[in-house]
Design goal:
Its EC number is 3.1.-.-. Keywords: Hydrolase, Signal. It is an enzyme of class 3 (hydrolase). This protein is of the alpha+beta class. The protein is about 20% helix and about 30% strand. The chain has 6 helices and 23 strands. The structure holds fe (ii) ion (FE2).
Length: about 425
C-alpha cells in the first residue's frame, strides 16, 4: 500500500516537474508564454444582472486558471480585496496542438455595477479589465449588431469593432449575426478573429450566433457541427437538446433575445430535425417571457434580397412563430447587404408598424462584400455596403426601439424606430 502511494506521489512530482519545466521553456522561448491568458472573452451564460462569464485560452496545460474580481474603486488596478474563482479547464485540439479553454462564471454580483477583473494563473495574468452588470430594473440601454465578419483577413473587422465600440463605449453587449469566420473549423481563423476582437471582447460581452460558415471545415465540401464556436463562446445552455450553447435566449432590460440557427442544410447530417427541435423550443421560450420587447436573430434572412438565395424552409419554420409572439425585429446576416423590410405580418405589410415584424439584414462588418445583390419587393430600405463595411446601434428605451446604421467612416445609412 505504502509502495503504491509512494509510486503515485513520485509520478505526481515528476508530472508537476514536467509541467513546470514546459511552462518555463515556453515562457523563455516565446513572446506569449503558454500560461499567459489569450483571447479573453466576456459572454453571459446566465443572468446578466448578477453573473459574468469569462473565457480565455492558454496554449498548453499550465496551472489551473483563476479569475479575480472586485467592485471597481478609484483607479483601474485590481483591488487587494479581489475575490478569486477557480476556472474550469477544457482541452481543445487545434491543428494537432492541445490548448486549454478556461471558463469562470462569476456569480452573486450586484446589478448595475462596474467590476474590475483579471484572469490567469501564477506566471501569467491578463491586465486588469472591467465589465458592468446589467441593472436590476429595465432602464434604457443600447447594443451593437454586426453583420458577417468573415474573410481570411480580419483587419476590417478590427476597424469596425474599434469604431463601433469607440463611439458606443456604453453598449451593454454586441453580437455578430453568424459567419464570424470563413471556415468555422479552422483554428487559425478563430485565432485571427479573436485577435481582432480584442478591441472590445474583454470589456463588452459578446452574444453571437452561428452562420453556415461556422459549419465549414478546411476540407472543401465537408461539414461539421460548429464545435469550435461552442467551445470558445460560453453561452446560455437553455436551448433545445443537441443545440445547447448554440441556440439560446437571454434577457437584458425589458428585452427578451432569442438566438436561432438557420443551418438546416449544413447541419442536416448531424441534426436532421434541427428546425423541428428549434420550433418546439421557440414556441415555449417566447410564450414564457413577460418582456415588453422580443428580438430574434437568425443568420439566413427569412426575407432575402437575392431570389436565388431564398431560405424557404427556414422562413416556413420560424416566421409564423415569431410573428404570433409579436417579435418586433428579426436581425439576420448572410447576404452582406443592409436591408430592412416594411413591418410584415403573414407575408403582407402590417396594418400598423407595431403590429408587424421588421426583418433586418445587417450588412457586413468584415472584408467580404457582394456585388450582385438586389432588393426584394418587401424591402423599405436597401443599401449595399460594397464600398465600406457597416454596423448597427440599437437603443431600447421604454416603448421605443430605435436603430441607427453607420458606415465604418461614420456616415449614417439608416435611422428608424418602432414605438409600442
Ligand atoms: Fe452565411
Amino acid at each position: 500500500m505504502t509502495g503504491i502511494k509512494h509510486g503515485v506521489r513520485m509520478r505526481s512530482i515528476a508530472a508537476l516537474l514536467i509541467i513546470a519545466l514546459a511552462c518555463l521553456v515556453s515562457a523563455l522561448s516565446s513572446a506569449a508564454p503558454s500560461s499567459a491568458p489569450q483571447q479573453v472573452t466576456l459572454t453571459w451564460s446566465d443572468d446578466p444582472r448578477t453573473t459574468q462569464t469569462i473565457a480565455w485560452q492558454t496554449a498548453s496545460f499550465c496551472p489551473r486558471g483563476r479569475a479575480q474580481y472586485a467592485e471597481a474603486a478609484a483607479g483601474n488596478g485590481l483591488p487587494v480585496n479581489a475575490v478569486a474563482v477557480v476556472a474550469r479547464g477544457e482541452p481543445l485540439l487545434t491543428d494537432g496542438e492541445k490548448i486549454i479553454i478556461h471558463t469562470a462564471t462569476l456569480t452573486g454580483l450586484k446589478p448595475g455595477t462596474r467590476y474590475i477583473y483579471r484572469v490567469g494563473a501564477d506566471g501569467g495574468w491578463s491586465e486588469p479589465l472591467s465589465f458592468k452588470t446589467a441593472p436590476d430594473e429595465a432602464r434604457a440601454f443600447k447594443f451593437l449588431v454586426f453583420g458577417d465578419t468573415q474573410n481570411d483577413v480580419y483587419d476590417l473587422w478590427r476597424a469596425v469593432l474599434r469604431r463601433a465600440c469607440g463611439t458606443n463605449p456604453d453598449a451593454a453587449f454586441w453580437t455578430v449575426v453568424g459567419d464570424l469566420v470563413e471556415v468555422g473549423q479552422d483554428p487559425e481563423q478563430w485565432d485571427a478573429w479573436f485577435d481582432a476582437s480584442q478591441e472590445a471582447i474583454d470589456i463588452i460581452p459578446v452574444m453571437p450566433l452561428t452562420g453556415n460558415h461556422e459549419y465549414y471545415t478546411p476540407l472543401w465540401g465537408e461539414r461539421s457541427l460548429p464545435s469550435m464556436f461552442t467551445a470558445r463562446f460560453k453561452l446560455p445552455g437553455n436551448g433545445p437538446e443537441g443545440m445547447k450553447g448554440q441556440v439560446y435566449s437571454f434577457d437584458y432590460g425589458d428585452v427578451h433575445f432569442v438566438m436561432l440557427d438557420s443551418q438546416a442544410r449544413e447541419g442536416a447530417r448531424f441534426l436532421p430535425d434541427m428546425l423541428e427541435r428549434q420550433k418546439a423550443w421557440l414556441e415555449k421560450d417566447l410564450a414564457a417571457t413577460k418582456k415588453q420587447w422580443k428580438v430574434a436573430f437568425l443568420h439566413k434572412p427569412p426575407y432575402n434580397s437575392e431570389t436565388a438565395r431564398g431560405n424557404g424552409a427556414v422562413k416556413a419554420a420560424f416566421v409564423p412563430i415569431l410573428e404570433r409572439h409579436r417579435v418586433a425585429v428579426v436581425f439576420s446576416g448572410h447576404e452582406h447587404v443592409y436591408a430592412r423590410t416594411y413591418p410584415l405580418h403573414d407575408d403582407a405589410v402590417a396594418a400598423a408598424p407595431s403590429e408587424g415584424t421588421v426583418y433586418v439584414t445587417a450588412g457586413r462588418a468584415g472584408g467580404k462584400a457582394r456585388v450582385k445583390a438586389r432588393a426584394g419587393e418587401w424591402h423599405e430600405v436597401y443599401y449595399n455596403p460594397a464600398e465600406e463595411p457597416n454596423y448597427l446601434v440599437v437603443k431600447v428605451a421604454g416603448n421605443v426601439l430605435a436603430v441607427e446604421v453607420y458606415k465604418l467612416g461614420g456616415d449614417l445609412i439608416d435611422n428608424w424606430k418602432i414605438e409600442k
